[in-house]
Design goal:
Radius of gyration: 29 Å
Helix content: 10-25%
Number of strands: 19
Distance between the termini: 72 Å
Number of helices: 3
CATH class of the largest domain: Mainly Beta
Largest sheet: 5 strands, antiparallel
Shape: elongated
Strand order of the largest sheet: 2-1-4-9-8
CATH architecture of the largest domain: Sandwich
Number of domains: 3
CATH superfamily of the largest domain: Immunoglobulins
Structural class: alpha+beta
């Protein structure tokens, strides 16, 4: 018998044994079906962030009989120093265990003990007992990628310009972060957003200036829970007056003088509107 055939037999026997034994089905942030004593790597998380471990309450007993609500709770009885957790609510399916990393955690790989608990060993839950597995996480500040577009803006005075912020969350936390613009006069809008782990999203952040000139500022994206997660992208906006912009401003209540020119205001506004429709 060659090595490939032997390997296939070992895998099949292991799978059959697992299918007829108690197991824990991890749903997220990674997925795996684990027997007692096995392990799983969940992904990356930054210091100070929280994440959730989801698992199915369904399992089988020793004879292979399916128990739909076999596990009553998911807990983390053994954690690293300074880490904390909140057990899943009793009888929830799926079970949802919350784990929080301390803000001063050093970068590196950590392990924790995860336990599926059967609270009623001698009743209709078929004496499942408890099942314990090991979960690994990598603590790192590199948990999302940020791109900003455009970074060079030509704008009229008082006209909002949209900046597009693309976020790729490569970590396992769903904690929110804030978007701010620093260095832009009279502008301090802050926007709090959430990108779910393993997902990409694009957010629109508007900026404008009231005076002509060239303005250099930064778009900052900061985690609300982790001081080590921060991105700053330099942006330049050139604001200048134009005849078309002045005509558009007439429609926003900017009054020219003298009043006798009021009929021409309407014509200016109309012409600016027609021109903008044509160029778009």
């Amino acid at each position: 018998m060659n090595s490939k055939a032997l390997c296939f037999i070992v895998v099949m026997v292991s799978a059959m044994a697992l299918s007829n034994a108690t197991y824990l089905g991890i749903i997220g942030p990674s997925s795996a079906t684990l027997a007692n004593g096995q392990s799983i790597h969940l992904g990356k998380v930054a210091p100070g962030e929280s994440f959730y471990i989801l698992a199915s309450a369904t399992t089988t007993n020793a004879s292979g009989f399916t128990v739909n609500i076999g596990w009553d709770q998911l807990t983390a009885p053994v954690l690293q120093s300074g880490w904390s957790s909140q057990p899943s609510p009793l009888y929830a399916n799926p079970m949802k265990l919350k784990v929080t990393v301390p803000s001063n955690a050093a970068y590196g790989t950590y392990n924790m003990t995860i336990r599926a608990v059967n609270l009623y060993h001698n009743t209709e839950n078929y004496s499942l007992g408890n099942l314990t597995v090991t979960a690994y996480v990598n603590v790192s500040p590199d948990v999302y990628n940020i791109t900003v577009s455009p970074t060079m803006i030509n704008s009229g005075i008082g006209q909002p310009t949209n900046i597009y912020i693309n976020v790729n969350n490569t970590g396992i936390s769903d904690d929110p972060f804030k978007i701010n613009a620093y260095g832009l006069p009279a502008w301090n809008l802050s926007d709090q957003v959430v990108v779910l782990h393993g997902h990409r999203s694009t957010y629109i952040y508007p900026v404008y200036v009231n005076e002509p000139g060239t303005y250099n500022f930064n778009i900052d994206v900061n985690s609300t829970t982790s001081p080590s997660v921060s991105t700053s992208v330099p942006v330049t906006i050139v604001a200048q007056a134009s005849l078309l912009n002045d005509y558009s401003a007439v429609g926003q209540g900017v009054i020219l003088s003298p009043v006798i020119l009021e009929p021409s205001y309407e014509l200016m506004l109309f012409l600016s509107y027609v021109y903008k429709q044509l160029i778009h």
